[in-house]
Amino acid sequence: MPTVGETLxxxxxxxxxxxxxxxxxxxxxxxxxxxxxxxxxxxxADVEYVDNHPELFSARTEPSFLARALGRxxxxxxxxxxxxxxxxxxxxxxxxxxxxxFAAGELAELADSFIDAIADRGEADLMADYAAPLASASLAxxxxxxxxxxxxxxxxxxxxxTDLANFEDDPELRAVGDAARDDLGEVLNRYLDEIxxxxxxxxxxxxxxxxxxxxxxxxxxxxNNVRLMISGGINEPVDGIGLLAMTVMADPELRxxxxxxxxxxxxxxxxxxxxxxxxxxxxxxASVDTVLAGSAVAKGDLVSGVLRSANLDEARWSDPTRFxxxxxxxxxxxxxxxxxxxxxxxLGRQEVRVGTxxxxxxxxxxxxxxxxxxxxxxxxxxxxxxxxxxxxxVRYP
Length: 397
Fold this sequence. Notes:
Layout: H1 10-15, H2 17-27, E1 30-33, E2 38-41, H3 44-52, E3 57-58, H4 65-70, H5 81-89, H6 98-105, H7 107-119, E4 123-125, H8 126-143, H9 150-164, H10 171-194, H11 203-209, H12 219-249, H13 252-260, H14 265-276, E5 281-286, E6 290-292, E7 295-297, E8 302-306, H15 307-310, H16 345-362, E9 363-364, E10 367-368, E11 376-377, E12 383-384, E13 388-390, E14 393-394
């Protein structure tokens, strides 16, 4: 009789992963998926164990979906190699860096500009008309490539993510990713050629000027890691805004609490990210033969820690599939764990929180359009395919 994993395909997980992941947590917490040629690790404790033991499970995988799609980057290396670029680049994404100055001085105004663009229409698709423009424009501004326009940056993100989610190595999907990777690389090379002491307040200039141990970052290090930022650093806030907006529109009590106490938007943001986990996995490779949760993992096997499943693990969370703004059970794994946590998690949180809060503060009566039923899709990247909404009136700042 086949195992649960032997019956699964990526298409199954793309359509509706939560029930499948719940069954794997119960029956096969470390499950070999032949169609994907990797193990799925689905319980919080086991995902945490994989992440905390790089001597057993290396981020320098071969093959590597991340390295193939983006070039070798900090998420495809183990400490101490991975900490070199992270140490150099992290300050730009902290509250005291360019991200902090952007969030404090420009983010709300940028969100308002995209709300203004749709205000008179009375209806919109929040994913295409608001979340994607805001997340793309925000990261472009922080990096210093906003002259390219948010549309081009969003196209790069979608192209890169197409290959990052290509677990079954479809050559057509790989070609889409290759085109985005190469085009973005050419543009970044041009920007890096032009950086000097007068380049202004932007992350690219910070990266060039950084002096981590071992000397300045190479151009390849900068470009590959910026590709990484443009994939996860845009995709996750886009889906995060859609998921949080969808949740608030569906829950009048939650909306009332947020209206009465805007400080609760921070907790609402964290709970939406935990519940839905827009970026789904971390991938490692077994460095030695080992046993994980009773499964014999052979040296060289790919091992995927499923962050979405860890964030729904019944052993860690009470009633994990329920949105609970008052939850007090500790941090979630939506931005990964340990040494490979998302570099831009602070900025991403601000984009989701501020971006969604401004929608509800300015669009009175914001609600789903008649007949609209949100559909979530994707395994590696999961969010609403569209979110058609209507509203009654617009408040102007």
